[in-house]
Amino acid sequence: MAASRRPGTLRKAARTPLGIASGILLGLILLLAILAPVLWTSQANALDVVNMQQGPSAKHWLGTNLLGQDLFYQVLVASRLSVGLALGATAIGVSAGLVLGTAPVILGRRVGRFITSVINVAVAFPALLLALFFAVIFGIGAQGALLAIGFASAPAFARLVRTLSASVAGLDYIAAARIAGVSRFRLLTRHVLPNIGEPLIVNATIAAGDALLSFAGLSFLGLGVQAPSYDWGQLLNDGLQHIYTRPAWALGPGVAVVIAGLAFNLFGEALAVGLGNSVPRLGKLRSALAAAAAKSKAVIPQPPSRTAAGDAMLHVRDLRVAFPGGVHPVRGVSFTVHRGEAVGLVGESGSGKSLTALAVSRLLEDPAQVAAAELTLLGQDLRTAGGGAGTGRGRAAGAMPDRELRRFLGTKAGLVFQDPMTSFNPVKRIGPQLAEVAAEHHGLSARQARERAVDRLRAVRIPRPEHRARQFPHELSGGMRQRAMIGMAVMGEPALVIADEPTTALDVTVQRQVLRLLKSIQAAGDMGLLFISHDITVVSQVCDRVLVMYAGKIVETLPADGLADARHPYTRALLAAVPSMETPREEPLAVIPGRPANPADLPVGCAFAARCAFASAKCRAEDPALVADDSGHEVACWHVDQVLAVEPTAAVPTDALIADPESVSAPQIAGETA
Amino acid sequence: MSELRFENVTVRYGTGRHAHVAVDGVDLVVPSGHVVGLVGESGSGKSTLARAAVGLVTPASGRILLDDKPVPTRGRRPLQMVFQDPYASLDPRMTTGESIAEAIPRRAATRGAEGGYFSITEGGKLSSACRHAEAERLAELVGLPPGTVDKFPAELSGGQRQRVALARALAGRPDVIIADEITSALDVSTQGAVLNLVRELQRELRLSMLFISHNLAVVRYVADYVAVMYQGRVVEHGPAERVLLDPGHDYTRELLAAVPRPGTKLEPETPGVTP
């Protein structure tokens, strides 16, 4: 139902070359199964007594059997029974599996647990053993084999359905539906089944191929289809007795089984691959990006004069990131991080701040394309000709080969991510994970690496580091894990630490501790820190300088202790949007009207114009450049003077709020219920 | 006229040796038409308490009462919950309209006329057209643009999804709404808009609300009363002004000290001190 209104993922998945090829093959086989008996039954059953037991000839392509019937036509006609039985058995398996696997959702916890253990026991038996067992129970013949193979495949499907539905049942939207009073049956049909359908279809397709082979196997053993009916397995069984004298008799049905089995399996695999990851088309993206970078060279503001100083450590000029389909999330970012300096990068989600960090640390991979006029750490060019950071203009002078570059970054840059639970390998102990970094990049011996790991855990003030090093990530609290992550970042002697939302997942109390730790680690090592967050308050507590990013560009850079002097309307809006302990309770909170700019569809002029109370025709036509004043305070806005004339907290007039869906508040609701 | 009362509620996870007491004998009252802010660190049991109230977990002991009666688990659910993660709390395969409509009770019961925000009935049972119209009205109520009901969650921003989640909670015509960290997955810029909406709706509809958050500045803005949870227990409870200006418990003071203040530099951790 939903699939008809929404481009189905499965349909998209089937549009890969493998999907199309195997889909066509499968279609032909199904067509054959439908048409062959109608067209060729008389030829297949005709007795040619003169030409009994012949080998392949022009008249009989695969020869004739003991009764003189044409084997080629028999193979064609047998396709219906073979494919039909395989599909029937799969249908039985899927249906039984669905009933068993979803029963726990319907029947509640206690009965569900019992059914789950029954499924688990049944899964332990090999499917073929079960099939033989059922074949004996249901009797020999086509019907018996159908039921046997169908039920033998049921436990695997039940297990799959159980696992899929259990993972879906744990999600919030199921909980929300339960709270809303939705019945268990409706939960199953409306929420669980639609969300497990796709992997189930993929598995059923592959299982149909397996069932085809199983039927061939059962018929071959004499347990399946019985004469005078015939399927491929039975033909194979007959033919195999004469494999040395008349090989074509067995090869014909054998080839049919292989082709049909492959068609099912390949189509299933193609769907599975398509579901797992969609393959975007790269097209001419790289060259287009390089062209954009080259063209924009003329208008790039020159880096601030300070970068000429010898203490510049990370130097980024005109960094661009693009994705296929004309999406430009980072559009010419230039900044410098000096030794011992903490620089904050602030913006809403989708502003390109995290992509900037990933591009700098060379962690972006295809299909993301990175280009920069300059990207150096400690004077070393981080751009390479190949890979994700290609400039399209050939290898930059002094660029390293990929492997050396990775090692250079591994030792000179440390990374801290938002969620340490997903950044650590859950099945490896903390100590060895840290040691691995040292062994990989610094060439330390295993023992030295281990000692270094414990030493680093101590440095991030984890109590009893020797003990903690032997623990698994899940045994540490969120704050401890983030400390360990910081420890990992400083395993080498990094010149630069990049922290991407390092405290967003943490409580305020723990956040405070981790921020102070970051600060002390940075100060102790005289490192540069690039701190990325959506919360300008947090950034201002840690950093010396704040870069405010919007729609892939830096719109303002200002000292962290000079936030009150913010000049860009966006910076002011960000500051006003965070409730503090002094926010007046009786007034609505200041909000930024509208939605963040879409990197796939950016306006011509200033990207913030649509949400800005100061926007004029000029803003919508021309993108303002980042201009520095004498103190180094940079801002990209046409109306700085007007902005400065307004009190900072009142940067967004309230009448701008109503027009926009993201920020509709008091007035409409009052009107609604009055 | 609906007061939510927790009486000595204890929730345990696991059994025997592995049992873990998540909520430990909590007494808490959400007065009718007021907002109680529940603060505490992760693992303090605040979300478990919320899940116990809406029946997603069963308390080991204690009672959860709505107007001195046990919270009903059949028919109209007078308690509704809004979840933290707007990306996980909406079925990706249902339009937002379908998600909202699903929560509208099958039978339009008594509250309709005098309750204020539910009126379309047809012989006591709602036709699907009525349900759709009601879903549209609720979407408009939470400030979603027209046409949103026909969209899938993937087409909406985080803030808009959280509005849909609010609309769905309202569709159940609740007396009490439980908001579990509803802004912590949102950008600061969107957070303000959602908080404004929550406050307006609460005042307009006179809802009782349990507002859970670890951000004291947010709680202070929304709540009339504040309860502080620490290791499964409520360690402090009182009017918001009193608790925030004159905290009585050490943990509350610690929480208050940790609230980020713009421009105030954090001093580095002093070496040798283990947290």
The CATH architecture classification of the largest domain in chain A is: Orthogonal Bundle
Name the chain pair whose interface involves the most residues: A-B, 80 and 89 residues
Regarding quaternary structure, what we see is heterodimer
Number of helices, where a helix is a run of at least 4 consecutive DSSP H or I residues of chain A: 25
Large-scale geometry of chain A? elongated
Description of the structure:
The complex is a heterodimer of chains A (674) and B (275). With 674 residues, chain A is of the alpha/beta class. Chain A has three domains: 9-276, MetI-like fold (Orthogonal Bundle); 310-563, Rossmann fold, CATH 3.40.50; 566-673, no CATH class. Chain A has helices spanning 2-5, 9-13, 17-45, 71-107, 109-124, 127-138, 142-169, 172-179, 184-220, 232-240, 247-276, 285-296, 353-360, 402-412, 420-423, 430-442, 446-459, 465-469, 478-489, 508-525, 536-542, 569-577, 617-621, 640-644, 666-673, and strands at 312-323, 327-338, 342-346, 369-371, 374-377, 380-381, 413-416, 496-500, 528-533, 545-550, 553-559, 627-628, 634-635. In chain A, a hairpin with a 2-residue loop joins strand 5 and strand 6. In chain A, helix 16 (430-442) packs across helix 17. Chain A starts with a helix and ends with a helix. The model of chain A is unreliable at 1-7, 277-309, 385-397 and 650-674 (pLDDT under 50). Chain B has 275 residues and is α/β, with parallel strands linked by helices. Chain B has a domain at 1-76 and 218-258: 3-Layer(aba) Sandwich (Rossmann fold), CATH 3.40.50.300. In chain B, a hairpin with a 2-residue loop joins strand 4 and strand 5 (69-70). The longest helix of chain B has 18 residues, at 188-205. At the A-B interface, helix 8, helix 9, helix 20, helix 21 and helix 22 of A face strand 6, helix 5, helix 6, helix 7 and helix 9 of B.
